[in-house]
Amino acid sequence: MALNYHVLVIGGGSTGAALVHDLALRGFRVTLVERGELTSGTAGRHHGLLHSGGRYAVKDQESARECIEENQILRRIAPGSFEENDGLFVAITDEDVAYRDKFVKGCADCGIPTQVLTREQALRLEPHLNPEMKLAVRVPDGTMDCWRVPMRFFATAKHNGANIQPYTEVVEILRRERTVVGARVKSHVTGKVTEIGADIVVNATGAWAEKISEMAGVRVPVRPSPGVMVAVRGRWCNMVVNRLAPAGDGDIIVPQRALSVIGTTSWYTDDPDRLGLPEDHVQMMYQKGGELIPAVKAAPFRAAWSAARPLIGDEVLEGGRELSRTFKCYDHKVRDGVDGIVTISGGKGTTMRGMAEATANVVVQKLGVDAPCRTREVVLLPYWAYYQEVQG
After folding, report:
1. How many helices (H) and strands (E) does the chain have?
2. Element (H, E) at 299
């Protein structure tokens, strides 16, 4: 029955990648459009952390549980994509030490395994840590390539018949009275404007979700929250290093090949296409990162960039760390009285597959199709298979 329906997915980030994979496995005809290159938005700009959920285990346990569940699933379906190096939450001050029990209990409540390490044990694992550190807690964090992992989803979706169109921008959402029936799109390669009809349109544009929803006459409470990251030369840790404290600026260092990525700051913006790169935020990353690993303060600069998190929430709060990192899927027939359109936003790169499953479940329910999710078990093709022709 799924073959009778066409789903149009807008947004070629990690969520869009996982969603076209899920829908193609369920048997739908699927088209995905992305105005730029695939993963050219937030998906290709994060620091590459495979979250254990530890960062959210105290204040945002829904997100923490999502992260640890998807952490384990991704390792199974995308073998070889991750550096399974674990992470350390490091206590530098007495205040950090006092946070330990709350952190360990939060992790236990969320199903995140932990191991408390003495100062000496932690320094044997990571000798470049601040020598003034007092203890550390080990969690199953990891490191991913933020481009190659989504491309494995795209590759598998394409080989299962999905039509993926980068450099194709939505210029109008097509409605027939109170029902969305497709989109008018412009190719940035040919300049042609065409129409794509669909039984369901899914808005998977992340921080840009509000722009697409406005075209459809519906509302999505997305707050784009940019953050600055800095990469320095030198692999100053082999594990992911976090501050054992409530989430804050510059409290994580992620090893990426021969680099170390320090992140991140947080604020709100109204336009995810105009993030800026405040110089004081760049300097803050050096300062705060140096509290964890002093050597990064003098490490040669490699790059700095910003990316917008698509946080879910109506209220404008100071700073950008108060909103949950969980995801929400909106059926706009229920929310706004407009049928034929669904929005998925929020979440993390780690939760891409889970976000896609939740969204595809809404699609099959709306269309009355019996097509269960299979993405928890199907092993993904390698990223380079995306560039190969499908062999019949």
Report:
1. 9, 20
2. none
Task: Name residues whose C-beta falls within 8 Å of residue 128's C-beta, 6 or more positions apart in sequence.
Answer: 236, 237, 293, 294, 295
Here the tokens at position 314 are: 């109506």
pTM of model > 0.85:
yes
List of long-range contacts for 105-109, beta carbons under 8 Å, 24+ apart: 106/57, 106/58, 106/61, 106/64, 107/53, 107/54, 107/57, 107/64, 107/137, 107/139, 109/57, 109/61
d(CA 352, CA 51): 12
Q: Count Cα atoms within 13 angstroms, Cβ side, for 346.
A: 24
Q: Which two tokens mark 179? A: 């029902």
Angle CA 342–329–346, to nearest 5: 120
CB 262 within 8 A of CB 252: yes
What is the pLDDT at residue 314?
A: 54
pLDDT of 390 reads: 54
> For residue 7, which phi and psi values (nearest 5 degrees)?
-115, 130
DSSP 330-361: EEHHHHTS-BSEEEEEE--GGGHHHHHHHHHH
In this structure, the strands spanning 200-203 and 341-346 are parallel
CA pseudo-torsion sign 286, 292, 294, 295: negative
Residues (pLDDT < 50) of the chain are: 315-324, 392
Q: Give the whole-angstrom CA distance, residue 253 versus residue 68.
A: 19
Q: Using CA atoms, how far apart are residues 346 and 326, in angstroms rounded to an integer?
A: 6
- CA atoms in the 13 A half-sphere facing the CB of 367: 27
Q: In the chain, what are the helix, strand and coil shares in percent, each to the nearest 5?
A: 35, 30, 40
Residue whose C-alpha is closest to residue 48's, from 254, 251, 206, 321: 254
- Helix ranges (DSSP H) in the chain: 14-25, 61-77, 94-110, 119-125, 148-159, 209-216, 279-292, 332-335, 352-367
Instruction: Note whether 108 and 64 are within 8 A (CB).
Output: no
* Residue 43 φ then ψ, to 5°: -60, -35
Domains by residue range for the chain, with CATH: 2-42+148-221+324-387 (3.50.50.60), 47-145+223-312 (3.30.9.10)
pLDDT 10s digits, 34-78: 999 999 999 998 999 999 999 999 999 999 999 999 999 999 999
The pLDDT value recorded for residue 338 is: 97
